[in-house]
Amino acid sequence: RLLFGALLVIGLSPIVLGANSQLLERLGVTQTQLKSKDFTLPFIKGGQGKLSDYRGKWVLLNFWATWCGPCRQEMPTLESVAQEFNGEDLQVLGVSVDQGPVGLVRKYLKEQGISFPNFHDNKSEVSSVYQATAIPSVYIISPDGYLAGVFRGGKSWETKEVLQTLKELVAFKSLKDLYGGKLAKKNDSFSFPKDLLPPVMKIKKLRTGVKIGEKIRLSLEIKWPGDSRRYLIKVPRLKVPKGIELQNISSSTGQKGSHAFLEYHYQLLLKEPGTYR
Asked: What is the pTM of this model?
């Protein structure tokens, strides 16, 4: 019998499709004018807080996890932003989606010298609302509570160009101010447009009853709304247990209706008897 499960991390590099604001465009975010959804979560260090507690400031809201490699690379650069602005006109906030003990997350933040506030979303309640299934993802919230832009994938936020752009951005005290006094049609519902929905990954079920020396194929499908050029997706790394050999990887891509898809096929060889996860 063969049972197989895998945890795969996707590296994403969004392609900006258009922009109305030069400053947000320079930051490379996908822009929106949705009213942000408030939430209450426990802090990693203890106590609780709300997103609305930071109303009146620009907020960089970062969804991340300790097991995510790109997140670990990005966190120190967000700490540089936090130190640069010192919570005055701009506040950096983290939302850890780690499902393990909060102590492990607390230890990581202490070891890395991360000082900005971090929430713990261990049940993925808030990350689900914000469609933050691809991490890291940074959401830019305006002082008047609008979701101004979304950046999916790792980014260095401490470059001279990015810090200068953020300094110019915080001079605007509202999203309406940023857009010259006029916003698009008012929309108080928090419903993401299709072009902001992240990729969805699905592992196709493997058959059981595999014999020693038999080859089987594990298929992984990734799909997202829009055209295939919207995301650059790295080949997901598959870690196989002892007793199974990964022989080769093939892929295919295309368009199914309004969705682009990418499939990876992993050819596996069962070498030893056993039950595998």
From this structure: 0.69
